[in-house]
Each structure stands twice: as structure tokens, then as C-alpha cells.
Amino acid sequence: MQPRYHTPQSPYLSSSTRDPHKANSTLVPSADQHPSFLVDELLHDLMRLKLSDKDTHVHENDQRHHEVAAQISAADLRVASLGRAQDVVADQLRQAQAKWNAQHNDHDHRIAQLAHTLSAGQTLLEEKHVLETQIVTSQFHKVFQRLQDTLDKQTMGDQALERCVANVHSEVTTLQALHDLHATEMKEHVRALRGQCIQNTTALRLLADEVLKLKQRAKTQDFGRQQQHDHLPPRHHPERDSDKALMAELDHALRHTSYTT
Question: Where is the stretch described as Disordered (predicted)?
Fold first, then answer.
């Protein structure tokens, strides 16, 4: 952008205006110059300096304007980029919203299906529970009836067993009384038999003593006879054999009676 103000070139301005040292040298009047001319030249120089300062300020303002415009342009670019990014994000949000709505509708549909299935399953479970309850109740009644019948039979059996036990107890009591009576009678018979055995033993002992005496007497007689008849052969005497048998029986009876006593 070009400056909006142009400094008019004065015939009195030279190239020394670009050099401060030369400008200062022109401002100092020489001795041969006219004072009015010097005043005019000073005025022109002052005007030129003011215009130069004004152009400098204008140039600085233009530079600032350019910088601000560049910043505004960069900001516009950033805003446009942010707008495009916002549009992309908004599009993504709309897509996500549409996807979420679809998923939400799908979830609602699935929830409705699951609720229907759950309701149907609950109904089936209730019906099954009712049927199972009826079956279990029927079985329980049957088992209870069987148990009641068993208890009745057991009660009858217990009563019959009690009667049998009472009868057996009565019979046992009767048998015990008979046993005691027979035991008493047996004891009396045993006492009588023991007394009889003692008497028999005494009689047998007396008889044995008599027999021994007779045998001793017989031996003595036989010994005398043998001395008289030594020249004769010995003869067999059957009475002696009978005497030996009698003695053996007596010995056996005596031993038996001694053991029993």
C-alpha cells in the first residue's frame, strides 16, 4: 500500500535532507546569505520536517495496518479451519447420534423381546410350579396314607405282641411255678434217694465185709485141703468164678457209691 500523503519537493530542498548531517549544515546560515531568504528556507525546512514526520507516522500506521490485516487474515484462516473442523465434528456427532439412536432402538427392541420372553418364562415356571406342587402334594398324601396304614398295622401288631407277651408271661409264670414245685419234689426225691443210697452203701459195705470174711474162710479151707491133696491135679471150681464175678460187682458198686457220696 502506497503512502496517502506525498511531500512536495521544495526548490530549496536538496539531497541533504536524506542525510541529517547535511540537513543540519543547510539550517546553519552562512554569512553571505540574506536573512529573509534564510527565514523562508527555515520555514520550508520546518514544513518539510513536519511532512516527513507525518509520512513516517503514516508509514508506521500502514505497517501496523498491514500487520493487523495479516493477523486478521490468519485469524480468518484459523476460524475457517476451526469451522471446517467443527463441521467435521458436528457431522461425526450426528453420525454418532444416529448410531446411538439406532443402538438405543435396537436395545429397546431387545429389552422388549427379553421382557416378553421373561414374562412367558415366568408364566411357564408358575404353571410348572403349580403342577409340581400338585404332584408333590399327591405323593405326600400317598406317603402319609401309607405311613398311617403302616402305623395302624404296627399298632395292631404291637397290641397282638403285647397280648402274646402277656400270655407268654403267664405261661412262664405257670411254668416257673411248676418248675419250682418239681424242683422241690426233685430235691425231696434226691434227699430220699441219697438216704436210700447211704443205707444201700452201708448194707453193701456190711455185705462186702461178710463176703470178705467168707472168702478168707474159704481160702483158709482151700489151703488146708490143698495141703491134704497135693498129689491130686487142680480142678476147676465154677463157684469160685461166680465168687470172683460177685466180688467185681461189689467192688464196682462200692466205688460208684463212694464217688456219689
Answer: 1-31, 220-241
